[in-house]
Design brief:
The structure is a single chain. The protein is mostly helical and 297 residues long. It has one domain (3-290). It has twelve helices and no strands. The protein has helices spanning 3-26, 35-54, 67-91, 94-100, 104-115, 122-141, 152-179, 182-206, 215-242, 245-250, 255-265, 273-290.
Length: 297
Protein backbone atom coordinates (compact mmCIF):
# COMPACT_ATOMS: atom_id res chain seq x y z
CA UNK A 1 0.00 0.00 0.00
CA UNK A 2 1.50 3.39 -1.02
CA UNK A 3 2.06 6.28 1.39
CA UNK A 4 -0.76 8.42 -0.01
CA UNK A 5 -3.32 5.63 0.48
CA UNK A 6 -2.12 5.09 4.05
CA UNK A 7 -2.39 8.83 4.68
CA UNK A 8 -5.96 8.87 3.35
CA UNK A 9 -6.86 5.90 5.58
CA UNK A 10 -5.28 7.71 8.54
CA UNK A 11 -7.40 10.80 7.88
CA UNK A 12 -10.51 8.61 7.52
CA UNK A 13 -9.76 6.80 10.78
CA UNK A 14 -9.33 10.09 12.63
CA UNK A 15 -12.61 11.42 11.23
CA UNK A 16 -14.50 8.26 12.25
CA UNK A 17 -13.23 8.53 15.82
CA UNK A 18 -14.15 12.22 15.90
CA UNK A 19 -17.64 11.38 14.61
CA UNK A 20 -18.25 8.93 17.45
CA UNK A 21 -16.74 11.31 19.97
CA UNK A 22 -19.56 13.87 19.68
CA UNK A 23 -21.93 11.49 21.47
CA UNK A 24 -19.47 9.51 23.62
CA UNK A 25 -18.02 12.65 25.22
CA UNK A 26 -21.47 14.20 25.67
CA UNK A 27 -22.74 11.20 27.65
CA UNK A 28 -20.42 11.91 30.62
CA UNK A 29 -21.04 15.67 30.77
CA UNK A 30 -21.97 17.28 33.02
CA UNK A 31 -23.00 14.27 35.17
CA UNK A 32 -19.47 13.01 35.85
CA UNK A 33 -17.26 15.85 34.62
CA UNK A 34 -17.62 19.34 33.16
CA UNK A 35 -16.17 20.45 29.84
CA UNK A 36 -13.02 22.22 31.02
CA UNK A 37 -12.23 19.42 33.46
CA UNK A 38 -12.51 16.92 30.61
CA UNK A 39 -9.95 18.95 28.66
CA UNK A 40 -7.41 18.54 31.47
CA UNK A 41 -8.02 14.77 31.50
CA UNK A 42 -7.57 14.67 27.74
CA UNK A 43 -4.43 16.80 27.58
CA UNK A 44 -2.73 15.09 30.52
CA UNK A 45 -3.55 11.59 29.27
CA UNK A 46 -2.36 12.32 25.73
CA UNK A 47 0.84 14.03 26.91
CA UNK A 48 1.73 11.00 29.05
CA UNK A 49 1.04 8.60 26.16
CA UNK A 50 3.12 10.53 23.63
CA UNK A 51 6.05 10.96 26.04
CA UNK A 52 6.00 7.24 26.85
CA UNK A 53 5.97 6.28 23.16
CA UNK A 54 8.81 8.73 22.46
CA UNK A 55 11.09 6.74 24.79
CA UNK A 56 11.10 3.85 22.31
CA UNK A 57 12.02 5.80 19.17
CA UNK A 58 15.12 7.83 18.18
CA UNK A 59 15.20 11.20 19.92
CA UNK A 60 14.92 14.43 17.96
CA UNK A 61 16.04 17.90 19.03
CA UNK A 62 13.58 20.76 18.68
CA UNK A 63 14.99 23.90 17.07
CA UNK A 64 14.67 27.07 19.15
CA UNK A 65 13.44 28.98 16.13
CA UNK A 66 10.43 26.64 15.91
CA UNK A 67 9.31 27.18 19.51
CA UNK A 68 7.09 30.24 18.84
CA UNK A 69 5.17 28.38 16.12
CA UNK A 70 4.92 25.27 18.32
CA UNK A 71 3.50 27.33 21.17
CA UNK A 72 0.98 28.90 18.80
CA UNK A 73 0.00 25.48 17.42
CA UNK A 74 -0.43 24.16 20.99
CA UNK A 75 -2.60 27.17 21.86
CA UNK A 76 -4.82 26.77 18.79
CA UNK A 77 -4.88 22.99 18.34
CA UNK A 78 -4.90 21.82 21.95
CA UNK A 79 -6.10 24.65 24.19
CA UNK A 80 -8.64 26.87 22.40
CA UNK A 81 -9.83 24.02 20.19
CA UNK A 82 -10.44 21.57 23.05
CA UNK A 83 -11.79 24.04 25.62
CA UNK A 84 -14.38 25.33 23.16
CA UNK A 85 -15.32 21.88 21.88
CA UNK A 86 -15.85 20.25 25.27
CA UNK A 87 -17.65 23.21 26.80
CA UNK A 88 -19.75 23.37 23.62
CA UNK A 89 -20.62 19.66 23.92
CA UNK A 90 -21.58 20.21 27.55
CA UNK A 91 -23.94 23.06 26.60
CA UNK A 92 -25.27 21.86 23.23
CA UNK A 93 -26.11 18.58 21.44
CA UNK A 94 -24.09 15.91 19.57
CA UNK A 95 -25.76 16.58 16.20
CA UNK A 96 -25.17 20.34 16.43
CA UNK A 97 -21.53 19.58 17.16
CA UNK A 98 -21.23 17.11 14.28
CA UNK A 99 -22.80 19.59 11.82
CA UNK A 100 -20.89 22.71 12.86
CA UNK A 101 -17.50 20.97 12.88
CA UNK A 102 -17.85 20.56 9.11
CA UNK A 103 -17.08 24.24 8.57
CA UNK A 104 -13.44 23.33 9.38
CA UNK A 105 -12.44 22.76 5.71
CA UNK A 106 -14.12 26.05 4.80
CA UNK A 107 -12.05 27.82 7.43
CA UNK A 108 -8.89 25.95 6.35
CA UNK A 109 -9.46 27.38 2.86
CA UNK A 110 -10.04 30.90 4.26
CA UNK A 111 -6.87 30.80 6.36
CA UNK A 112 -4.88 29.23 3.51
CA UNK A 113 -6.02 32.05 1.22
CA UNK A 114 -4.99 34.65 3.79
CA UNK A 115 -1.69 33.11 4.93
CA UNK A 116 -0.33 31.17 1.95
CA UNK A 117 -2.26 32.96 -0.80
CA UNK A 118 -4.30 29.98 -2.03
CA UNK A 119 -6.14 30.89 -5.26
CA UNK A 120 -9.65 32.36 -4.86
CA UNK A 121 -12.38 31.30 -7.29
CA UNK A 122 -16.06 32.32 -7.26
CA UNK A 123 -17.56 28.88 -6.36
CA UNK A 124 -15.25 28.62 -3.34
CA UNK A 125 -16.19 32.11 -2.21
CA UNK A 126 -19.86 31.11 -2.54
CA UNK A 127 -19.10 27.94 -0.54
CA UNK A 128 -17.60 30.01 2.27
CA UNK A 129 -20.72 32.22 2.35
CA UNK A 130 -23.07 29.20 2.39
CA UNK A 131 -21.08 27.51 5.14
CA UNK A 132 -21.37 30.53 7.39
CA UNK A 133 -25.08 30.96 6.59
CA UNK A 134 -25.72 27.34 7.62
CA UNK A 135 -23.73 27.81 10.82
CA UNK A 136 -25.63 31.04 11.58
CA UNK A 137 -28.99 29.33 11.07
CA UNK A 138 -28.05 26.53 13.46
CA UNK A 139 -26.83 28.97 16.11
CA UNK A 140 -29.89 31.24 15.93
CA UNK A 141 -32.70 28.78 15.14
CA UNK A 142 -31.29 25.51 16.45
CA UNK A 143 -32.48 26.08 19.99
CA UNK A 144 -34.21 23.24 21.82
CA UNK A 145 -35.34 22.62 25.37
CA UNK A 146 -33.20 19.79 26.71
CA UNK A 147 -32.14 19.08 30.26
CA UNK A 148 -28.72 17.88 29.11
CA UNK A 149 -28.17 20.93 26.86
CA UNK A 150 -28.58 24.05 29.05
CA UNK A 151 -27.38 26.69 26.56
CA UNK A 152 -27.50 25.47 22.97
CA UNK A 153 -26.84 28.84 21.22
CA UNK A 154 -23.71 29.46 23.30
CA UNK A 155 -22.58 25.86 22.80
CA UNK A 156 -23.06 26.21 19.04
CA UNK A 157 -21.07 29.46 19.02
CA UNK A 158 -18.24 27.70 20.85
CA UNK A 159 -18.22 25.02 18.13
CA UNK A 160 -17.52 27.79 15.59
CA UNK A 161 -14.54 29.00 17.64
CA UNK A 162 -13.44 25.37 17.98
CA UNK A 163 -13.56 24.83 14.21
CA UNK A 164 -11.74 28.12 13.57
CA UNK A 165 -8.86 27.35 15.91
CA UNK A 166 -8.48 23.79 14.59
CA UNK A 167 -8.49 25.04 10.98
CA UNK A 168 -5.71 27.51 11.76
CA UNK A 169 -3.82 24.74 13.56
CA UNK A 170 -4.00 22.50 10.48
CA UNK A 171 -2.53 25.26 8.31
CA UNK A 172 0.28 26.18 10.73
CA UNK A 173 1.31 22.68 11.85
CA UNK A 174 1.89 21.52 8.27
CA UNK A 175 5.46 22.88 8.12
CA UNK A 176 6.30 21.48 11.56
CA UNK A 177 4.98 18.02 10.66
CA UNK A 178 7.33 17.95 7.67
CA UNK A 179 10.33 18.73 9.88
CA UNK A 180 9.74 16.57 12.97
CA UNK A 181 8.54 13.04 13.62
CA UNK A 182 4.89 12.80 14.57
CA UNK A 183 5.43 11.55 18.13
CA UNK A 184 8.12 14.09 19.03
CA UNK A 185 6.07 16.98 17.65
CA UNK A 186 2.91 15.96 19.48
CA UNK A 187 4.58 15.18 22.81
CA UNK A 188 5.71 18.82 22.98
CA UNK A 189 2.45 20.27 21.66
CA UNK A 190 0.39 18.36 24.25
CA UNK A 191 2.78 19.23 27.07
CA UNK A 192 2.62 22.92 26.14
CA UNK A 193 -1.15 22.68 25.75
CA UNK A 194 -1.59 21.03 29.15
CA UNK A 195 0.43 23.77 30.87
CA UNK A 196 -1.46 26.55 29.05
CA UNK A 197 -4.92 25.10 29.81
CA UNK A 198 -4.20 24.22 33.46
CA UNK A 199 -5.29 27.56 34.99
CA UNK A 200 -8.68 27.24 33.24
CA UNK A 201 -9.27 23.51 33.51
CA UNK A 202 -8.03 22.64 37.00
CA UNK A 203 -11.05 23.86 38.97
CA UNK A 204 -13.52 21.61 37.13
CA UNK A 205 -11.01 18.74 37.11
CA UNK A 206 -10.67 18.91 40.91
CA UNK A 207 -14.45 18.51 41.36
CA UNK A 208 -14.51 15.01 39.85
CA UNK A 209 -15.14 12.18 42.31
CA UNK A 210 -12.71 9.68 40.76
CA UNK A 211 -13.31 6.95 43.36
CA UNK A 212 -17.03 6.57 42.57
CA UNK A 213 -16.85 6.77 38.77
CA UNK A 214 -18.85 3.92 37.16
CA UNK A 215 -17.48 1.80 34.31
CA UNK A 216 -19.73 3.58 31.79
CA UNK A 217 -17.87 6.81 32.53
CA UNK A 218 -14.40 5.22 32.72
CA UNK A 219 -14.54 3.60 29.25
CA UNK A 220 -15.76 6.86 27.74
CA UNK A 221 -12.88 8.72 29.38
CA UNK A 222 -10.51 6.11 27.94
CA UNK A 223 -12.04 6.48 24.46
CA UNK A 224 -11.55 10.24 24.54
CA UNK A 225 -7.95 10.03 25.82
CA UNK A 226 -6.70 7.11 23.71
CA UNK A 227 -8.96 7.39 20.68
CA UNK A 228 -10.07 10.99 20.24
CA UNK A 229 -6.81 12.52 21.44
CA UNK A 230 -3.86 10.15 21.08
CA UNK A 231 -4.91 8.27 17.95
CA UNK A 232 -6.59 11.12 16.05
CA UNK A 233 -3.73 13.59 16.47
CA UNK A 234 -1.25 10.86 15.55
CA UNK A 235 -3.28 9.95 12.47
CA UNK A 236 -3.85 13.58 11.44
CA UNK A 237 -0.19 14.55 11.67
CA UNK A 238 0.78 11.39 9.75
CA UNK A 239 -1.78 12.31 7.08
CA UNK A 240 -0.43 15.88 6.89
CA UNK A 241 3.02 14.51 6.05
CA UNK A 242 1.63 13.17 2.76
CA UNK A 243 -1.43 15.35 2.05
CA UNK A 244 -2.33 19.03 1.82
CA UNK A 245 -3.94 20.62 4.89
CA UNK A 246 -7.05 21.33 2.81
CA UNK A 247 -7.24 17.63 1.80
CA UNK A 248 -7.11 16.50 5.42
CA UNK A 249 -9.76 19.10 6.23
CA UNK A 250 -12.10 17.56 3.64
CA UNK A 251 -12.47 14.43 5.76
CA UNK A 252 -14.35 16.52 8.30
CA UNK A 253 -17.11 16.31 5.66
CA UNK A 254 -17.83 12.77 6.89
CA UNK A 255 -18.13 13.71 10.54
CA UNK A 256 -21.81 14.74 10.48
CA UNK A 257 -22.78 11.50 8.72
CA UNK A 258 -20.95 9.38 11.29
CA UNK A 259 -21.87 11.60 14.23
CA UNK A 260 -25.56 11.90 13.37
CA UNK A 261 -25.93 8.19 12.62
CA UNK A 262 -24.31 7.18 15.91
CA UNK A 263 -26.22 9.76 17.99
CA UNK A 264 -29.57 8.59 16.57
CA UNK A 265 -28.60 4.91 16.86
CA UNK A 266 -27.90 5.19 20.60
CA UNK A 267 -30.80 7.59 21.23
CA UNK A 268 -28.59 10.49 22.31
CA UNK A 269 -30.07 13.01 19.85
CA UNK A 270 -32.60 13.40 17.06
CA UNK A 271 -32.90 15.29 13.79
CA UNK A 272 -34.96 18.49 13.59
CA UNK A 273 -35.88 20.67 10.61
CA UNK A 274 -33.39 23.36 11.61
CA UNK A 275 -30.56 20.84 12.02
CA UNK A 276 -31.34 19.19 8.70
CA UNK A 277 -31.63 22.44 6.72
CA UNK A 278 -28.60 24.07 8.32
CA UNK A 279 -26.54 20.91 7.88
CA UNK A 280 -27.47 20.68 4.20
CA UNK A 281 -26.42 24.29 3.57
CA UNK A 282 -23.12 23.78 5.43
CA UNK A 283 -22.34 20.59 3.50
CA UNK A 284 -23.12 22.29 0.17
CA UNK A 285 -20.70 25.03 1.17
CA UNK A 286 -18.03 22.47 2.06
CA UNK A 287 -18.55 20.76 -1.30
CA UNK A 288 -18.05 24.02 -3.22
CA UNK A 289 -14.94 24.92 -1.22
CA UNK A 290 -13.26 21.52 -1.48
CA UNK A 291 -14.15 20.72 -5.10
CA UNK A 292 -11.24 20.84 -7.50
CA UNK A 293 -11.36 23.56 -10.14
CA UNK A 294 -9.37 24.15 -13.29
CA UNK A 295 -7.40 27.27 -12.34
CA UNK A 296 -5.57 27.65 -15.66
CA UNK A 297 -5.91 31.13 -17.11
Amino acid sequence: MDKRTLALLAALGATTIYGLNHTIAKEVMPTYIQGFGFVQVRLLGAAILFWLVSLFIPQQKISRSDLPKMLLCALLGMVVNMLCFFKGIELSTPINSAVLITITPILVFVFSALLIKERLVLPRILGVVLGFIGAFVLIVFGNEIRQDAPNIPLGNALFIVNASSFAMYLVLVKSLSAKYTTVHLLKWLFLFGFIMALPISFTEFSRVNWVTLPFEAIWRFAFVIIGTTFMTYLLNVYALKQLKASTVGVFTYLQPLIGIAYAIMVGADGLTASKLSAGSVVLLGVYLVTKRYDLKV
